[in-house]
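3.2 Worked example (two chains)
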Amino acid sequence: MFLENHSHLQQDIFGIESHLSESKRKKLHNSLEASFYKLIFCNIDEKLFAPLFSDTGSRPNAPVNVLVSSLIFYQKKGWTTEELFDRIDFDLRLRFALGLNNLDDTPFCPATFFNFQNRLLKYFTEKGINLLERVFDSLTQDQLKELKIKTDIQRMDSFQAMSNIRSYSRTQLLVEMLIRLYRVLDENDQQKYQEIFTPYLSQTSSKFIYSLSKSDIPHELEELAVIYHRLYHALKPLYSSIEVFKIFERVYNEHFCIVSDKITVKDSKKIGSSSLQSPDDIDATFRSKRDSSYHGQVVNITETANPENSLNLITDVAVAANNTDDSTILNDRIDILKAKTSDLNELHTDGAYGSNDNDQKMQEHTINHIQTAVRGRTPGVAIEIKETKPGQHHVSCPLQSTQSQNTRKRYKACFDMTICAQCPYAEECQTIKQKERRVFYFDEEMIKLQHRIHAIEQLPIERQKIRPNIEATVKEYTKAYNHKGKLKVRGIFKTILFAFTMSIGINFGRIYRYILENPHLFPGYSHINSILKAIGHAIGHYHKCLELFMPNFQRTVLKHTTCQVLAKVAF
């Protein structure tokens, strides 16, 4: 049964602060964790998570705002689960951030923490709704409005989120899946197929591969093809619903095929980047970029970038398979970005985000797409196209210019052959040489490409170098990677949890630092601190008085009355 958590609003006069001196209470109220409580914890809309729980009378849920806040600290700090629970139990500042007013309560156990994530995954799978994204959007919209941050200019970039998996060679992956398949077979089937599995069970898949020479691998693959084919057809009727067999079936279909009624090994070049990279992460894909190989997902982030902003916040986050082109991700996010920030009219990206489809969408939403570079081969001779009026264009090269002419499906520009003959770049020119002239053909897609190439040149100098600053934001995410440059999790949904909790944490960190640097701009924030400090003093005073003059049962009654009064005053 879903219940909202309001217990943190009832200050406990025998709680954490009653045990602290005035100087320590002051330090606690000025801490990052106290700011987190006020800026994030108290603004998490718990009602968003009501569908995760039963709507009939049953045991109440663990407090959602505590669970979500714990996830944010868990990811932002890079803690293990054990470290998180140690901190919850013994770190006074973290307990304060989570709205825990005394030293005794543990708000949930590890099983509840993992079950909550599983509920989020199930809801995401069934409904296609990421509840943490909704929390992020809700918090961010309020923050943008409260801090009066301009969202008309934004910048975008992506980074590789490497899954925490082992890199398997093709042969090792096939052997590993055989070993895992054997483990899920019942005893009768294990005995029935013992002869097939025995060569692979005496050692790990990595040690098995080390024992093979390079010349042995083609023969081994052929043997594995026969084994996979036999096991697949023999076991499918019995194990088709088992998760491990489903992965085995996927590997079988990705690596082998029937040719002339014979099972054969597929050419490695025909195995796509979406093929299984590891049985521990069925969502991970493969991508080669700048001579490096990546297995996992890609995270795309967008943040405000108006030079007039004193503070910029992340406005949009998306996670996709890492073999998804940046231009495809942008195409999926343009409508969403515009809906979130309706005044968006200028978006800065690198060259990978450009496409004809994106140009069309940008035009529909009146967004000026600014690219720091344009993907593709640079032509030997630059030819510029500028629209003078609908259907007519001024076309120029380094030595001459002309007006375009319409053809049946596109446009053409005709250049004077005598001038072209004197051009030192004639051999590299992309125009077509005809009898009496050189002709350059172009279409609407090339016109849009030209617009993207020159769009940055039309901006004031201070707006031409906006995009590279987002790389500092990327570094804030990658700080959470392990020593191998990978995430500490596997799977696309765990990557989604990482991306959105980190984004909430990064935005909060920026706001917190901005408030510290500019206290004069936030009198309301200082007022809240003053109230909380006063409550701390009151709690300490009441605690001493009660200890001296009242018996236990009277202290208990007054404790609850005082908590209610102080909570109303504070909130």
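3.2.1 Second chain
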Amino acid sequence: MKTTTAIRVFLLLFVIVICQGALLGAEVPITVDTQRLLVSVDPTACRWSAEVKGTPMQMNDVHFLPDDDPSGWAVVSSVNEDDSSNLGSFVTVTLRGTKPGRLDFEYQISASKTNTDILVSLGRSNNTGKAADIGDMDYFVSNDARLGGTTDKWISLGVRSLNEEYYDLAWIADLVTPTMYQVNQVVRNMDTGNSLLMGHVTTLKGASRFEVAQGWTGKSADRMQVRGYCSYKVIMPAGKSFAGEKLLIDFSTDAIRAMEHQADLIAIAHDIRLKQRRPIDLEDKGLVSGNYIRFSDQGMRTAPQFLKAYGLYDFYYPQPSQPSLPPQSGPPPSPQVRPGGGWGVYGLGGSIRGSAPRQNYPAECYLPVHTQKYLGDRVIDFSNPLTIKLERERAFQSVVGNENATGTMEMDYVDGWDKWPGQYDPYMSALETFHAGAAPWREVIDQKSPRRRTRSNMTPIDHLYGFVDICRISSDADGGYEEKDGGYNFWFTQSVLGGAIRAFYNGRVFWNDLDSFHVYAWQSPGWVPSGGYAQSGRFNYGQAKVSANFKAFAGSTVYVFEAPNDPTLKREFDAQYPDNRIELLKRVSPPTMDVSYPVDLFVRKPAQIWNMPVERPFGKWAVLGVFNYTNDLNRVAKLAWRTFETFNFTAQLDAAKDLRLDPNKEYIVYEFWSKKLIGTFKGTFETRPLNPYDCDIYSIVEKQNRPVLISTSRHIRQMAFDIKDLAYDGQQRVLRGVSRAVAGDPYQLRIYVPDGFTAKRVELSGDLAAKMAADAHLLTVDYTSSTGNDVEWKVFF
């Protein structure tokens, strides 16, 4: 009897608790169990946690409410078990919250059904009846994020918005003060490879920020603090709402692939389709030369003559004529206008340098401020519909009569695009006003001048998605190679650091531009660290080799900045260019659509090893670049993270983890500049010892039980540029292919011949003659075409 009474009392109390919870709006915790993720959400506390199944990777007690205070909020939850979009298939938990006097929220946690992606978004609605200031909004904050092991083995790096800001490698255990990056922040366990990437997928209204700090105070050193938030700086009118950005939380075992995956998601979310819409089409020489090959206006005013004089014309293609500008009317430019000034600078203006200036825009198109950021000049207001209307007219007028031209329309120098007081529409964020000014130029190219490309110089990179095709991802690199008095910021490293940290964008979101390179003579158009302007000097061969190879390998544009014989320069560079410098120029142009990644991004700063996977209908292979940038021990001590590898630099590379190759297969290695067959490897490849101011460019091809083409002499990308078709006929024992040719340029095929095969003869199209030479397993076939026509070749065994 007593037992029955106790049971009844327990049931009554249980019902009362449930009813009280329902009356108070309490929600039952939600569990999301996908293929790789386990996510739990507490709607009442507005907190959630996530873990990768079977691993120590997790993020616990994540919150987003101001002050982490759920009191007074009425929250309703829902679950979409089949939330599918072009970003993937997810299970999405949505929390909708209201509180008197506060902005309503719609918070979403989307867990991927198949991988480890977690997308977080935070939308806001203003139902308070009055305008509200919105600054920073937390999307996720956790004091307990883990990768396994301890934080003294976890290293962090990240990507900033401004292109002249680079990255540092920092141990999490040392980060008492958080580090903050705008595009992403990635933390990697250096022992296991377990990694956490926090980054944005969309940049529509709120500019993202990501912070990381050590989080073990008072506990074991096995966790860190993380925070993802967005900056808006807007005044939100009553009745308005916005959906919020999509931020990515991605646990993985390959941090570099995670960064590439983020770029893929950015490209999808912003509908970029770079390779389809803006291809580097090698069959269209005018398009390639007009858009992806450049010569500095100041350093190389005689580019066509220079190309012809040194036999480089067919390597860089004829340069297209520049489209003329529409005639200008109205008052002359303001004396405040500075050549090369910023987007917001009075008079020069515009997303596109070289276009008609904005001299005639009325006063209401400008903000009532004069900022020192632009040396006191006025700032254009792209929140004003009149400004946008005039900008669109200006954009469309700029292509009249030149609709079929190639060439780039350039975003101006503007490293500090920000929110300014006095906007026509204070609800538009800095991202939105930037996009409003860029949109007409994207529109005019898409509609009227499709052979052109938009290119940015020094604008905030995360503002450019979908608007810009070619993105400058580093600061100026045209002031020589390095300072003579030591120090950190020597010129060439500007491109090395910018190229390394932003390599994941290349071929996905932008075609990366690493700025100019020199092979012999340089002349800086501006300030250099040693002081003064228009400094000049010469590269030695090692510096020239490293610079030209790196820019052509890590980027997707070729930008030559030389100071050859030009009487207007009145410089010393009238001497004949050395043959080895001309050879460098021949072998780095033009680019292809293949992109590389920095293998050792998390190991040393700057990264010295770059791998380029190549895939064609007829096969897959890799091209590997290894660089030794300097011999200055003081500089290397600052640049390399806890490594002091300077002279005779070498590294051991894992086939699977580092080179993305099959660890169970054997591969053949050939080095381009030394013209040497290095040998074969399986599982692990050790690079050759490399002296300072030098680089090796390897071709890595799978070994077969038949002859294999392993390299060609035309381009450092070895076969990626010049081989258009390739096949082996086992019955006839014939290796055949089609190669692009340059008239008068000696060309060599490099073929690995396994035991049991001997080359018998070569047949070439166009009645060309060939010379064969065999050295152990290496067969070379040399010929020179008198035309630029493709050459069909067959090697019989």
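3.3 Remarks
The longest helix spans residues 2-23.
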